[in-house]
Amino acid sequence: MDEAPWIGTTLAAARPQALAALLRYFHDLDLAEEAFQEACLRALKTWPQKGPPRDAAAWLVFVGRNVAIDAVRRRAKQAPLPPEETFSDAEDAEAEIAERLDSSHYRDDVLRLLFICCHPELPATQQIALALRIVSGLSVGQIARAFLVGEAAMEQRITRAKARIAKAQLGEAGVPFEAPGAVERAERLGVVAAMIYLVFNEGYSAAGDTAAAREPLCEEAIRLARLLLRLFPAEPEIMGLAALMLLQHARAAARFDGEGTVILLDRQDRRLWNGPMIAEGLALLDKAIRHRRPGPYQVQAAIAALHARAARPEETDWAGIDALYATLEIMQPSPVVTLNRAVAVSKLRGPAAALAMVEPLGDRLSGYFHYHGLRGALLMQLGRPREARDDFMSAISLATTAAEAAHIRAQLDALKQEAAEAGHGA
Amino acid sequence: MLYTLLCYHQEDVVCAWTKEEDDAVMQKLAVVQERLAKAGKLGPVARLLPTTAATTLRKDRDPPLVLDGPFAETKEQLLGFYVLDCANLEEALDIARELGAANPGGSYEIRPIGLFHDGGARP
């Protein structure tokens, strides 16, 4: 592999398409994976001499299918292995397969492969692990590192998840192999988009030492979204999802300090933001908006875009952000959305107006770190340090990462400092 | 004589490069580019963002048709290009429509640019 690193990247890039088509032929994920592996081995043998085929995915599908059919026959009849020449006509038949791959058939293949990973019986983390293993082709070791678990544990988790979907495929709840109707296709896209965003958040929510290990998850999620977009180029919510992830991930280099502590948006060094990623996100959002079919991903991307467009925090269009959160509150009512809107309101109309918005959320968000963090900060701005302290103490006890706790400790220090200065003045 | 060099590659392969691989390629290219720039031979250099960010304006009909995605017809050939500074896609489309009215037929693919250097060479 060392002599020809391009083969590795070509195989990785062709994987989703090739595997998805093989799954349609065999209706069996294990057999499809086996066929793909075998085809890859043959590619490693023949491509360095013959050069890469015109369409790598089509080549892999053709060879993989033949190899697997032979394997099945051999198992059935114990017949002798067919000669290697059987595959030598691969180039001729390739064009025909490539044509079929280009058709809408193939688009539904990849969607089906992703959708099968999203089986509702599987917990979210297993859906993510499965998609990364099967669709992205990450190694078990890579996935284990990203999830901060041992390789053996991850292997077991993936094997169990696969067994579960294999069983589900046999039953009535199995995902059918014929092309889905328009409604079904739209539903599948929605489920798959949600799973891709889960993959992204699994990487994005990491902090400290683990942030670097989990960054590949964000990149994989963006790659999967681009893959979906190439297949479904006119879906505004998929554009919105890709834009949202690009605009958020563009801030990666500015989000943590040397110790892994979170740097909030208004304190980040915006020169560290990734310009091309922001440009791509903004372009995708512009495309999405033209369709005039708004959805939650597009609205969230539009919020991220308003942050990205502000060269300095003072230039942020908080009125626009407030209006977008108001839209999101209608589309996806949730106390967390209202909490986020309160941040914009605090910038627009001051801490008192924001606090009035936050107070009614107490019943539902009293166990939520960010609720206490924001409430504490608002009370601090309003000159109510004692109550602010109570909220910060609650927040610290609810912090799930060291970075979150460190951020609140800094707030508590600021509170102490303020009290000392006030005492000094008196 | 000014020449333009159009770069073709498999997008899903290039997008699958790790940041390290990408940086290594860009660094190697920068060495060559710097030498060319010093010799006064380098004009504008652009790296385009993925085709998923592209929009196509078909100007073979009136009014022109806006489609999501890159230009995909193989019957037409690449005959030229513009670099435009626009606030957003709408402005880029407006300019494309204006140009299209002056020269109907064919298509414009509107694709954002990720990296751009104004090389400095002039005819």
Average pLDDT of chain B, rounded to a whole number, is 92
Tell me the span between the first and last alpha carbons of chain A: 74 Å
- Count of helical regions of chain B: 3
Largest sheet strand order of chain B? 3-2-4
Helix amount of chain A, in percent? over 70%
Question: What is the radius of gyration of chain A computed over CA atoms, rounded to a whole number of angstroms?
Answer: 26 Å
Task: Report the span from N to C terminus of chain B.
Answer: 7 Å
Secondary structure layout plus pairing:
The complex is a heterodimer of chains A (426) and B (123).
Chain A: H1 5-26, H2 29-50, H3 56-77, H4 90-102, H5 104-117, H6 124-134, H7 140-147, H8 151-170, H9 182-204, H10 209-231, H11 236-249, H12 275-290, H13 296-309, H14 318-331, H15 335-349, H16 351-358, H17 362-365, H18 369-381, H19 385-398, H20 402-425
Helix pairs in contact in A: 1-2, 1-3, 1-5, 2-3, 3-4, 5-9, 6-8, 6-9, 7-8, 9-10, 9-11, 10-11, 11-12, 11-13, 12-13, 13-14, 14-15, 15-16, 15-18, 16-18, 18-19, 19-20
Chain B: H1 11-15, H2 19-38, E1 45-48, E2 55-58, E3 65-68, H3 89-102, E4 107-110, E5 113-117
Antiparallel strand pairs in B: 1-5, 2-3, 2-4
Précis, in short:
The complex is a heterodimer of chains A (426) and B (123). Chain A has 426 residues and is mostly helical. Helix content of chain A is 74%, strand content 0%.
Description:
The complex is a heterodimer of chains A (426) and B (123). Chain A has 426 residues and is mainly α. Among the domains of chain A are: 5-102, no CATH class; 104-213, no CATH class. Chain A is 74% helix and 0% strand. Chain A contains 20 helices and no strands. Chain A has helices at 5-26, 29-50, 56-77, 90-102, 104-117, 124-134, 140-147, 151-170, 182-204, 209-231, 236-249, 275-290, 296-309, 318-331, 335-349, 351-358, 362-365, 369-381, 385-398, 402-425. The longest helix of chain A is centred in the C-terminal third of the chain and has 24 residues, at 402-425. Chain A is elongated, with a radius of gyration of 26 Å. Mean pLDDT of chain A is 87; it is low at 85-92. Chain B has 123 residues and is α+β, with helices and mostly antiparallel strands. Chain B has a single domain (11-117), classed as 2-Layer Sandwich (Alpha-Beta Plaits). Helix content of chain B is 32%, strand content 17%. Chain B is built from 3 helices and 5 strands. The mean pLDDT of chain B is 92. Chain A binds chain B through residues 6, 9-10, 12-14, 223, 226-227, 229-230, 233-234, 239, 242, 275-276, 279-280, 282-284, 286-287, 290, and chain B through 10, 12-13, 15-17, 47, 49-53, 55, 66-69, 88-90, 112-115.
